Amino acid sequence: MRRSALFLVFIATGACRGDSPEISDSTTSTQTGGSTTVPTSDGGGSSATSATSAAATSTGDGTTEPAGTTFEPPIWCGEALLDIPVPTPGVMLVLDKSGSMVADPGGLWDHDNDPNTPTVTRWNSLHSAVEQALGDFGDSMDLGAVLFPSTSATASDSEAACLMNAAAEVPIAAMNGPAILAAIPGPLVDGVTMQGATPATRGLERAIQALADAPAERPRVMILVTDGAANCQANAPDTSTLLEVYDDEVTKTVAAAAAMGIHTYVVGIAVAPGVSGVEADGEPDNVDTFEKLNALAIAGGVARPGDEKFFNAHDQAQLGAALQAISMALVPCVITLDPEPRYPYSVEVAPYGSHQVDNCVTEDGWMFLPQTDPEEPLQIELCGEACADYRRRGAFDIKYRCPVG
C-alpha cells in the first residue's frame, strides 16, 4: 500500500502576481522557473504524470475547471489533484504469547491501579492495547503479526514449549487490523489454552522474513512486546539449556535487522530490575530481564533516552500509551509539499483554511515549518486534531490558491 496525501489545487482566476510572497524572514518558497509537474490519478489507485498543459477555463463563479496537470509559469492558475506519496510504514507486531502472560497468579496484574477492581491477565491488557492501536492507526500502516510461541505450543519441558509457525501468523498487508485481531488469541484466554515458553528470537526471525520483501525505501519496523526473558535457543543440547538459559541470539538478531534497515521497538510488561533465581521453572536463570531489554532496545536502533531504553508498561494505560507513542513516531505529521506552492500565503488546509496556528502542541490546525536554508523543501506540520485525522485517514486536503488582483 502506498499512502498518499491528496492535494486539491484550487486556484482563483485573475492576474497572478509575479513575485512569491514570503512566509517569514527565513521561510520562502524557492520554486522558480521551469514547470511544475503534477501527478494525477489514473483511476487505478496509482499516479501518472502528464507531460502537457492546457489552458484553464472559467466556470463563471470565480474558479477554474481542471485544464491540465502541468502549470507553466507565468500561467500558475488552474485546478488539479496532487497525489503526493507519503511512505507507508511496514510494521510487524511480535507478541509474547507465552504462558506467563496468563499464568495464575504470575500473569495477573492490577491493570488499572485500582485495588477494588478485579485483576486481569497481562494478555488481556495487551489485546486491548493492540485493538486500540489498530483502530487508531491501522489504516495508515501496512501491518502484520507474529506470535511467539505459536498457539500449538504446550507447557511441557521440551521443544513443544517453543513451537513456532513456519511464517508469520498474519503476513504484512494494508488495512490488516481485522485480520490481526482474528488471528491472535482473544482477551479472555487462560493458562489452559495459552501455554509455552518465550522463543523471542524465533518470533523476530519470522517478522524479519515478513519484512524482507517490503520496499526498503519506506520505514520497516518490528514492535516486540514481552513480559520476560528470551529462551528456546536453537540447537539446545538439553532441556535445561533450552528453557533455563537466556537466548543471547535475540540481541544479535535485532542488531542484524537494524543493519538491514529494520528497526525494533521494545515494549516490556511489568519488567522490574533484578536478577532471577535458579530454579527449574521454565524461565532463564541468573538473568536481569530489565538490562536484557535495555540492551535489546539499543540494538534495535530506536532506544528511548534516559536509563530505561525500552517502553516499560506497569499498567494497561501505559501499555496502550507505549503502542500509541510508537505509532505516532511512525506516522509523522510533517508533510513536504512537492510540488511547492508558488504562493505559500495562499495555501489552505481543510477545514482550517489559511490560518496557521501559533502552538502546534496545544492547537488544532496547521503551520509552516521554518526553512533555515532556502534549498530546504517547504514543509507543513499538522497539529492536534488535524494530525489525528491525518493518521486515521492517511490523507488530508490542501488547496494551493493564487492571489487575485
Topology overview:
Blueprint: E1 3-10, E2 36-37, E3 39-41, E4 47-49, E5 70-71, E6 79-86, E7 90-96, E8 108-109, E9 120-121, H1 122-137, E10 142-148, E11 170-174, H2 177-183, H3 200-212, E12 220-226, H4 239-244, H5 249-259, E13 262-269, H6 289-300, E14 311-313, H7 316-330, E15 334-336, E16 347-349, E17 365-368, E18 379-383, H8 385-393, E19 398-400
Parallel strand pairs: 7-10, 7-12, 12-13, 13-14
Antiparallel strand pairs: 1-6, 2-5, 3-4, 8-9, 10-11, 15-18, 16-19, 17-18
Helix pairs in contact: 1-7, 3-5, 5-6
**Low-confidence stretches at least 5 residues in length (pLDDT < 50)?**
1-80
The first-to-last residue Cα distance is 42 Å
Q: Strand portion, in percent? A: 15-25%
> What is the second-level CATH architecture of the largest domain?
3-Layer(aba) Sandwich
Domain count: the total is 2
Approximate helicity band? 10-25%
How many β-strand runs? Answer: 19
Describe the largest sheet: 6 strands, mixed
Radius of gyration: 26 Å
CATH class of the largest domain: Alpha Beta
Shape: elongated
CATH homologous superfamily name of the largest domain?
von Willebrand factor, type A domain
The neighbouring-strand order within the major sheet is 11-10-7-12-13-14
**What's the pLDDT, averaged over the residues?**
82
Number of helices: 8
Q: What is the CATH fold-level name of the largest domain?
A: Rossmann fold
